[in-house]
Amino acid sequence: MSQPEPNVDEVVQSIAEETDTPAETVSRMYTDTLAEIRSEAHVFDYVPLFAAKKVRNELRDKHHRKH
Predict the structure, then answer these.
(1) Nearest one of 13, 54, 59 to 33, comparing CA atoms
(2) CA angle, 10 as apex, 63 and 1 as ends, to 5°?
(3) pTM for the full model?
(4) Pfam families of this UniProt entry (predicted)?
(5) Which long-range contacts (CB under 8 A, 24 or more apart) does 24-30 make?
(6) Continuous segment of H or E residues that includes residue 45
(7) pLDDT string in tens for the chain (67-residue length)
(8) How far apart are CA 64 and CA 66, in angstroms?
């Protein structure tokens, strides 16, 4: 049984708020990351979760390096 797709707008907004990053930037990163992971995936059930986690971590790391 596959997992339901998360609401992309909600995911983007959540990451944007958590990382203090503009939603447009997060949306672009999330879309690109999702496409990248999907192109390499054999099982797609958790791809949106992996993409969100990767974007969130990249933005947090970037934010911490600035401070």
Answers:
(1) 54
(2) 115
(3) 0.80
(4) DUF3562
(5) 26/55, 26/59, 29/55, 29/58, 29/59, 30/55
(6) none
(7) 556 677 999 999 999 999 999 999 999 999 999 999 999 999 999 999 999 999 999 999 987 787 6
(8) 5
Number of H helices, E strands in the chain: 3, 0
Burial class of 13 by CB neighbour count within 10 A (0 to 12, 13 to 18, 19+): middle
Q: How far apart are CA 15 and CA 7, in angstroms?
A: 13
